[in-house]
Amino acid sequence: MKNSVKLLMLFFISIIAVACKKEEKSPSYHKGEMTILTDESFKSVTEALAEGYMINYPETKIKVATKKEDLGFIDLLNNKTRIVVMSRDLTPEEIKTYEEQIELKFLPAKFAADAVIFIVPKDSPKESITMDEIQKGLQSDNKEFIFDGANSSNLNFVAQKLKKQPKDLKFSVIPGSKNIIEELNKYPDKIGVIGLNTFSRPYDKESEQLRNMVKILPVEDKGKLYTTDFENLRKMNYPFTRVLYFLTNEGNFNIANGFIRYSCTQLGQMIVQKEGLQPYNLYRREVQMR
């Protein structure tokens, strides 16, 4: 009889232990840790969204790490990270590789409209730049355009926009977008190429200081000048407007997918707008008069 009672107790203990293990391993969007990989160009908006998510879900811890866009995508494919921020369109081969390796349908979670911008020192006489100048300048041995890296998101996006391979373009490099801004006055005949989110926060002191050091050149396309204001980003009129999106290898509703959902809701989109970028998901405000 005693042996039977012991066996029953052991049986129930084992059931409870298994249940606890399952509970520990069950997906959770409101607790846990993860790292988001993002190119330096989108770090500011990514950090702002991560901070917002952690405020709403205090049991989560999200670290934002910078890595070149292409390298971050490779890490995602190799399960070295759960989520990355992307801007360029993936090739059909890359999409196929993603779907085969990750075993998920390619569903980019678009959350903001950003832009690649062309900057000159504040005292430069240059007031605008044409698409033709950009095309020719990136084929010139003068290497008049300065990018933040040889495989940066800014270079990738410009090359894709011009229907070129990055390796076919001629350019100079100063590592880091902030470094380009701070050192550009040493090269008055050069044009810096950075991401708008580098200094797009309207009321941030550091962003304001960086903005005051340079002049953003409107881009002329087919006889029209386009700036990076909200309307031109929203309508994709500015020629180098790019849509930022999240890509994950998470197949369940865990912290990565929870973060993606949050970023695409009205609260997340308000954070995007406060960053000085155009929210991708627009929410209409309706006022009922009685």
TrEMBL record:
<dbReference type="InterPro" id="IPR024370">
    <property type="entry name" value="PBP_domain"/>
</dbReference>
<dbReference type="InterPro" id="IPR050811">
    <property type="entry name" value="Phosphate_ABC_transporter"/>
</dbReference>
<dbReference type="Pfam" id="PF12849">
    <property type="entry name" value="PBP_like_2"/>
</dbReference>
<feature type="domain" description="PBP">
    <location>
        <begin position="32"/>
        <end position="263"/>
    </location>
</feature>
<protein>
    <submittedName>
        <fullName>Substrate-binding domain-containing protein</fullName>
    </submittedName>
</protein>
<keyword id="KW-0732">Signal</keyword>
<feature type="signal peptide">
    <location>
        <begin position="1"/>
        <end position="19"/>
    </location>
</feature>
